[in-house]
Every structure is written in structure tokens, then in C-alpha cells.
Hints:
Layout: E1 10-11, E2 14-15, E3 19-20, E4 23-24, H1 30-43, E5 50-54, H2 63-70, E6 75-79, H3 89-97
Parallel strand pairs: 5-6
Antiparallel strand pairs: 1-4, 2-3
Amino acid sequence: MGQKTVVCPLYCPILIPGQVIGQTQQRHRAAEFLRFLHTIEQSVPENLDVHLIMDNYGTHKTAAVHGWFARRPRFHVHFTPTSASWINQVGRWFATLT
Length: 98
């Protein structure tokens, strides 16, 4: 009998200098992503801008998420090109750890 693999969405921005805010969720929907954005908002001092580099997953582009960003001008969103997983710094970071 084979082993069961469990995949869990991970939200993990890398902040300079070397601080990481990470969070795992059971699901990867807009609601969970918005909760994570709230965590970032509470964790980063208000005088700092926040730049998020994200993939093009649909969860990151819902109307609720767009509205959240529209109300928070210090948050700047940058999307990685489609099919460019090699650019994903979080993936590279975890590859180094394992």
C-alpha cells in the first residue's frame, strides 16, 4: 500500500532583513488568502510599503482580493510570469532548506 501525500497551501512572504511571515491553511481560497494578507498588514509597520510577488493563481485575483488591495495603497502587487516557477523565491528558499 502506498503512502498518502498531503499537500497544504503555504503563504510565505520573505521580508527584508530576513524576517519571514508564514502561514499554512487547509485550503487555498480567497478567504484564506485575505486572512493571510491581514496577518501581513498587522505585522509590517504602517510606515513601510509592502511589495508582494505572487504567481497567477486565481485566488490572488478575485474581486474580494482586488478590493482589499484597492483600499490599501501601501500594498503593491507584482505577478510572476505564467510558467515561470523558477522565479518563485519561496520555492527556491524551501529547496535550499531541504
